[in-house]
Amino acid sequence: MRRLFWIISLAFFAASGAARADERVNVVASFSILADIVRNVGGDRVNVVALVGPDSDAHVYAPTPADARKVADAKLLVVNGLGFEGWLPRLLQASGSKAPVVVATKGITPRKLGGAADPHAWQSVVNAKLYVGNIRDSLIVVAPADADAFRANAGAYLAKLDALDREVREAVATIPDARRKVISTHGAFGYFADAYGIQFVAPLGVSTEAEVSARDIAQIITQVKAAKIPAVFLENINDPRLIQRIAAETGARVGGTLYSDSLTGEKGDAPTYIDMVRHNIKALTGALAN
Ligand code: ZN
Questions:
Q1: Which of 24, 144, 175, 231 counts the most CB atoms within 10 A of its CB?
Q2: DSSP element (H, E) containing 75
């Protein structure tokens, strides 16, 4: 019994020693895109975990007991806000966390989406720069000793985002005005559309949630012809014959994947926020070029 006590005590001291040696700040971000931004600002001074990881949908997420433990261990919680994380209040309560919560969209002018605030503000790179500022400021509050590192990291990342914003504008400028429109079932590109002037037209009478049916296709074909839309991004059509039919009957190009709410894994097309924006603009310019 006594021996067991000593083993437990040693294990305890070993664990607390490890915690002291590792002075990184534990940060929990609600989803993969935010986690990437936090990683860029926090650098090697932070441990970042995303609750909703790559290739997962934060809109319909159901937090697990493991998430509550991650939140309980966090010194800072970073969320998007604008109604994106409807599951967050219950998770916060379950975790018992007293950590500060930074709303990364603070200061952003929200646009409307179906009567409510549109949460997808990160799709404008200019907005993403505001995310960086908010995250930097709150990291400085929770870990003031690392303030210089956070400021330097944020400065370097903001410069990359400035270059990315220019890159997107230059790419859009190569598309003739009349061709800057796509049909897309994504409701997530409103901020992108406002910032960069590519119109995202929703397919008439087709739910953005459900799979597009054969019956919907005739309507989409009529719409694409009437509005002379050069490209369609309809990732929720799982039947390639339907996609081929749209392309054959309208002459529109059928674009590839646009990433909106989540990054991909390391080996995917969009492992970071910057990769995601680059991938999307490449897919759009590829589909819309003359
Ligand atoms: Zn979304």
A1: 231
A2: none
